Request: fold
Amino acid sequence: MNKPRNEVSEQELRRQKEYCERIAQLLHQKKQGVRPLACTKTYGCQQNEADTELIRGMLQQMGFGFTENPAQSDLTILNTCAIREHAEMRVFGNLGELSHIKRENPDFLLAVCGCMAQQDSVVEKIKKSYPYVDLVFGTHALARFPELLYDKISRGRRVFDISGDEQGVILEGVAPVRKEGVRAWLSIMYGCNNFCSYCIVPYVRGRERSRRFEAILSDFRTLLAQGYKDITLLGQNVNSYDGGEDGPDFPELLEALAAQPGDFRIRFMTSHPKDCSKKLLEVMARCNKVCKCIHLPVQSGSDRVLEAMNRRYTAEHYLSLVEYARSLMPQITFTSDIIVGFPGETEEDFEKTIELIEKVRFHSLFTFIYSRRGGTRAAGMPDPISREEKQRWFDRLLDVQNRISREENAKFAGKTLRVLVDGLSEDPKYPLTARTDGFQLVLLRGSPENIGRWADVKIEKSSTWALFANLEG
Ligand code: 5AD
Ligand code: SF4
Reply:
């Protein structure tokens, strides 16, 4: 027997659907038949993007159309991120900017959800200082969004809900409304059990829980049928995917999806280095439709800091993974996350990070200055290094990585690469964007009807951030 998965029950799904219908009726009366409009704003990671797509699915069931402009909307929802203080300040800043809409249109509804909304301290602040926010619900209450919105609309009072079991639930049966295009996200699991000492995610997103294989496969086939060609499997730590007793582990899941018929490619994120197995790298190497790129956050090159971060691997182990992956797939690209200025980090520790970066030669990096998150273990650690000093380290890190990115990109000049043309750029000389298998950005000369097509292009030149080619030449 597969272990229970905390899926929202059929009965509860029906109940929420009824709330969607009631909201549709209420709004139809109130707006005298004019279609209500909703605006969603997403902060933070791809998991949040995927949650917003589910929220948009529910909004569609309630009869909403969509607008990008909050001032034109009847309801605006901010799906927030709590990972660093900077992300939270942006949300509070944007909330302030939205207050004028409420003054001009008292019927305008404003909701805040996501990771920030799962924290008591944030909810208290919104209650006191942002009286024009109508509805606040945490990540655990996502499946009850229709009921909460109905409560707000029918009773008129403010609604705050951050209840829910920290185990978290899995919401199946709501069709997401995705952005049009050729790239799509597909969640395979939720939550995190790792408790890295700096990270708020396990507190706001609950414990790890994996979707059923059949549900993932069915969504995957739907995406292919809808024309998506570049699909990213999502989870806070995809390597912990657990398909149950008779179900697949992550490498098996990846292989099963890659075996589906069609012209597509698969990526995944995020992988934790402690769980990145040889088996996974071998599956990547033998499946043509699995991209030869991996986002493998290392965070630091110092074993002392890695231990204090509770990462449970060493720099040497990380380098051995990179080496093994390259022995199987010489063309593989690596990207990573780095935190600079973790509490107690010394200049010597920081130099070890630089050394590791020089050894791996990442394609690109996401770099962050450590941000203290209340309630995490690191928040209680002494942190004597000044902000200015951390900024100096950070700038040095960027300089080193920019040089590496520029040098790595330059190696592609004159080579022919297969790309998927995926959108429009802002560069009039190279108006199209495309991505390689390794997720390198390629700017292309060519006409927009090529969007959605595969092409083999010869790289003319490169910069730190992109490769350049002519689609018609
Ligand atoms: N401060 C700075 N960066 C953080 N990250 C997570 N928590 C923090 C924090 N408190 C970074 C890590 C993680 C990425 C998603 O965000 O590098 O991999
Ligand atoms: Fe945060 Fe670590 Fe979990 Fe990633 S693996 S979400 S950094 S606790």
Remarks:
- The chain has four domains: 10-161, 184-291, 292-410, 416-470.
- The CA atoms of residues 198 and 376 lie 6 Å apart.
- The chain is about 35% helix and 20% strand.
- The pocket of 5'-deoxyadenosine (ligand 1) is lined by residues 83-84, 198-199, 297, 299, 337, 339, 368, 370-371, 373 (CB under 6 Å).
